[in-house]
Amino acid sequence: MFNFSQFIMATTQPRLIILASCTALFFLGSNPPAIGNPTGKDPTQPLKIHGTIDGAEALANQLHQTYLEELDVVTRMFERRNDPASFSDRQISKSAARLWKARRDAKHLELMSEPIGADLTRKLFLLAVQIDQFGLSYSRTPRGSQMMTQLITKLRRDSPRFQKFLQQAAASLQNRNDPEVFTKQMEAKGMQMRESLVFFRPLEHKKYLFNFDALLTTGDVNHKKVRRMQYLAQANDKIKNEVGSVAAATKEMKRICEELEQTGFATLDGDVKGDGTQAFAQVCKLWVQASANLTRANAIEWMITHQTGNAKISEIASLKKATLVALPAIINSVAEKTTTDQIPVVYTNLLRQISQLNRRTTGRNQVSQACTNALNELAKKNTALANGIDAYTRATAEPLTWRKRFANEQAGYLSSQQASAEALLNSKAPTDTSNRPNFARRPGGETVMVSRTFNEPADWMIDETAKRLVGQSIKEDRLIRLGPNSPTGVIPFTNSHYANVALALSPEEEIADLKIALLIDEDHHALSLAGMDAISSAEMQDYVSVGGTIQQVHLEALLTRFIAFPDAAMTLVPLGGLPQGTANLTPLEQTCWRLDIVPKWAHHGYFTVRSAASKPLERNTPQTSN
Amino acid sequence: MKQALETAKSKTKSMTNSAVEAVEDTLPESGEVTLNLQPDPIAISNAELDLISIGDGRPNVVQIITYNPDASSRSYPALLLHGTTNMSTASSLAGEKVQCDVYYQASESSPIAMTLPGEAMTVAFQQYNPTDKALTATLGMISLRGSDGSVIQIEGGDVLAVIREETK
User: Fold this and answer.
1) Are B59 and B94 contacting, i.e. CB atoms less than 8 angstroms apart?
2) Torsions phi, psi of A505, nearest 5?
3) What contacts 24+ positions apart, CB below 8 Å, involve A505-508?
4) What is the rounded CA–CA span in Å between residue A359 and residue A145?
């Protein structure tokens, strides 16, 4: 089987610089998420952080550790819940205090817009409910009753000192002292109080806390204001950086075009002088990088606005416009500066780049449409080439038409055996909750396979979804390979999920056959866009659709996926577009599921290919003329 | 094959008997294909041959088409034979054997049939008729795969193809 974590470090190829840029280690982003996302195989992995706000990672790691330790405590105590006398009052006190603080810290992580914060809030609440229950149960045991007497005495004795503390706290609030210090001191005191109060009924807490909660709430409001301002500034700085890079990329595109127009060469990465085809590839690469910049900036906007509207849609459109101005301009310069005998080589190089880029944009033919006139002008400079293109188009049009229809029909038969991703992911099935902690098991009802929100602890969600999805057959549309040497293709993000597909099929025979029909050999390339698209997509294994088996499921947070978004993952978002979250759901709570799929068949535009293990099509009887 | 040519000619004539006699002589041959399918052979009453030269050192393309590729809808049964040759004119194909991909569909609702990757039908061109600008050929045996997984066996056949154009 395929190890999907080995995400591809393919070597670059000059003719496909844009695609090579997609072949870096896929999910190791520029941000440093130290922890992985939960998977069906390892549901206990915490959700990754996106780290937009300084300190989020350390806090998330620390809180996750606290959660694991307290989960262990609660699970063990729950086993002995019918014998509360066996509980340790010290353990209950310690856990109550830690959970009280941890729940506050989880809220802080939420303020940092870290999805793991919301997840930890949910998990820690469930633990706190159990610990409170254990505290009350223990207080009713003979040993507990004795302890309660001592506790009441102690609380009463400490009360004057506590009230003095509260007066000082109130004064601190009044004087607008440093909210950081206020919070720290209140939390220390709050933990102390929780150690005792966990054994009391909630109604009795007020008797000993006086106005502690009111003061803390006021302090929290003040502190939150300060933190929110800080975090907003940090987030805006990051957006500014991303948008700045986009402006630089657009400027660079213009410079490349101008230099090429003037000299026939352009300075590209470093001090290397590149020709027109290399300049073309460089502009494509800049488009990819700048699109990744805007994807990240857009996702940070989600975090600020608490909505998944796409704030950067006009910037994405401007970037596309700039690119689609630059690309034909480069072809025009190429037409001016290239000698007649070199035009066929340059023409086919550009045609290949255009076909690859076409498949990676939102509207599939936008790049070719923008470049058609310039390409035609280029071809006209070499009469033999121009005539050859016409003849080639006529000589290959009919086989292409037949092959496309044949492949469509075959794909129809093949896909009839598989549920579409949308149907499968939105279907309902009974839930097996047996892997939940002992205190949370319940009879599993029917739920939607894939939830668009984090409505339960992430580890339960992934476990229960993976158990239902792994091994299921699925059909996905539009598979784009990460890079020319990559073993993985991607189904771009849509409807709360994306997929990684191991390119385990062997289309060599079909490619060889297609090459014969398209008159292609080592010295002769496709001359029409349709022919080039057919062969370049076949060689890249970019497929129209794919059917296969779900091998693994990963649960990611939408925000994290697109904020901690490496340039190399740009294949997930077709160029010229932005990922679409679910309207009316808060971004912090939105999921992004990743499916790992092992293909059984794939539908290329001009053939289908099946895995050796999959059965041939059912009907195998001789057919008569009609 | 002569017989096929005569049959096609007489067929065309019979179709135009009621038309104006004067145009009869200039009416082009429409060509014909007989495919020996099981259990009954089928005849397709149109076949044109294109020889297309790309001109950049690639072999030339020979294609025999039984339908009008420019029409909005196809006529059925529809057949395309597509192969390459080093001959530069259609007339010089007489006596040549060309390996062709086969594309076939009996009716609009039938599965499409194609040669398997790596396989090809041998088309043996026989006689060139300069008057009618037509070529005859015999078709070899081939097993096609259907888009529904079925197998379509062609036990040979005959072609009378009208040469449509030559591009250099």
Assistant:
1) no
2) -85, 160
3) A505/A541, A505/A599, A505/A601, A505/A602, A505/A609, A505/A610, A505/A611, A506/A609, A506/A612, A507/A538, A507/A541, A507/A602, A507/A604, A507/A607, A507/A609
4) 73
Question: What tens digit of pLDDT does each residue of A408-444 get?
Answer: 999 999 998 889 999 999 999 999 999 999 999 887 7
Given an 8 Å threshold on Cβ–Cβ distance, is A620 in contact with B107? no
pTM of the predicted model as reported, rounded to 2 decimal places: 0.89
> What are the start-end ranges of the H helices in A80-211?
89-111, 115-139, 142-174, 179-197, 202-209
Q: Where are the beta strands (DSSP E) in A482-542?
A: 488-494, 497-502
Contact A102, A191 (CB under 8 A): no
- Return d(Cα B105, Cα B114) in angstroms, integer: 9
Q: Which residues contact A320 (CB under 8 A, 6 or more apart)?
A: A287, A361, A366, A575, A576
Instruction: Give the nearest chain A residue to B53 (CA atoms).
Output: A391
Please state the ipTM of this predicted complex: 0.86
Q: Write the CB contacts of A554 (distance below 8 Å, at least 6 apart in sequence).
A: A37, A38, A39, A40, A462, A593, A594, A595, A596
Question: Residue A321: CB partners within 8 Å, gap ≥ 6?
Answer: none
Q: Is A187 helix (H, G, I), strand (E, B) or coil?
A: helix
C-alpha distances out from residue A321 to A253, A371, A603, Å: 12, 13, 31
Whether B55 and A387 lie within 8 Å, measured CB to CB: yes
CA distances from A375 to A256, A354, A381 (A): 19, 10, 10
Which neighbouring-strand residues pair with A602? Answer: A546, A609
Q: Smallest Cβ distance to A617: which of B52, B149, B153?
A: B149
- For A623, name the nearest residue in chain B, comparing CA atoms only: B152
Residue bearing tokens 């062969």: A535
User: Which of B 18-57 lie inside 8 A of A, CB atoms?
Assistant: 35, 37-40, 42, 50, 52-57
| Cis preceding-peptide flag for B117 (omega within 30 of 0) | no
Burial of B54 (0-12, 13-18, 19+ CB in 10 A): buried
Under 8 Å between Cβ of A250 and A319: yes
Q: What is the rounded distance in angstroms from the CA atom of residue A357 to the CA atom of residue A284?
A: 8
Q: Which amino acid is at A48?
A: K
Residues A152, A199 contacting (CB under 8 angstroms): no
SS (H, E, C) chain B: CHHHHHHHHHHHHHHHCCCCHHHHHHCCCCCEEEEEECCCCEEECCCEEEEECCCCCCCEEEEEECCCCCCCCCCCCEEEEEEEECCCCCHHHCCCEEEEEEEEECCCCCCEEEECCCCCEEEEEEEEECCCCEEEEEEEEEEEEECCCCEEEEEEEEEEEEEEEEEC
Q: pLDDT per residue over A371-416, tens digit each? A: 999 999 999 999 999 999 999 999 999 999 999 999 999 999 999 8
Spell out the domain ranges in chain B: 2-17+30-167
For chain B, first and last CA: distance in Å? 29
- Going from N- to C-terminal start, the domains of chain A cover 14-27+233-610, 56-210
Instruction: Answer whether A105's CB lies under 8 Å from A59's CB.
Output: yes
Q: What residues pair up with B142 in beta bridges, in sequence order? A: B154
Contact flag B148-A388 (C-beta cutoff 8 Å): no
